[in-house]
Write a structure and sequence with these properties.
The chain is mainly α. It is globular. It contains 5 helices and 4 strands.
């Protein structure tokens, strides 16, 4: 599962084009390095606060990301649709920390639930993948994210 942030998305008029191209290179590289892996790409998250101005670029990027994922044979997990408040175009309240950019504990819980809910549709279930692959297990994502959150919260 590949989830990339919005770093530098607002730095130039051609930022969306450059990021789409870079994502294509990333997915191509991952596919070559891990030919038996089932790649799943997450759409960019909506933002809030000072980053709310990026909403149009995020929507544009996500639309183009669907094409890149399809060309790479990767699944697409539409995180944006689950996290956005359609009345404002910003992230739903409480899913991001105060900076309006990074996931909160509740946001990570929501992401975990989304991954678990969509595992079968994305073909990342316990019974998918090549022999010897580390299987996806319900609860494993929740445990891993909980550990990561604890580490981040400490430092």
């Amino acid at each position: 599962i590949v989830l990339v942030g919005i770093n530098d998305l607002n730095d130039a008029p051609d930022a969306v084009d450059r990021h789409v191209d870079a994502y294509g290179v990333l997915l191509g590289t991952l596919a070559r390095l891990y030919p038996d892996a089932r790649l799943v790409v997450c759409s960019l998250l909506p933002t809030a606060g000072p980053y709310a101005t990026l909403a149009p670029r995020i929507v544009e990027f996500n639309g183009r990301l669907a094409e890149v994922a399809a060309m790479s044979g990767a699944g697409l997990l539409d995180v944006h649709a689950r996290f956005v408040d359609v009345s404002t175009g910003m992230a739903r309240r409480g899913l991001l920390v105060e900076d309006g950019l990074h996931l909160s504990r509740r946001g990570y819980a929501e992401l975990t639930a989304l991954i678990e809910d969509q595992a079968a549709a994305l073909d990342i279930t316990e019974n998918s993948g090549p022999a010897g692959a580390i299987p996806f297990r319900r609860g494993a994502v929740r445990t891993a994210l909980s550990r990561a959150w604890s580490i981040l919260a400490r430092g």
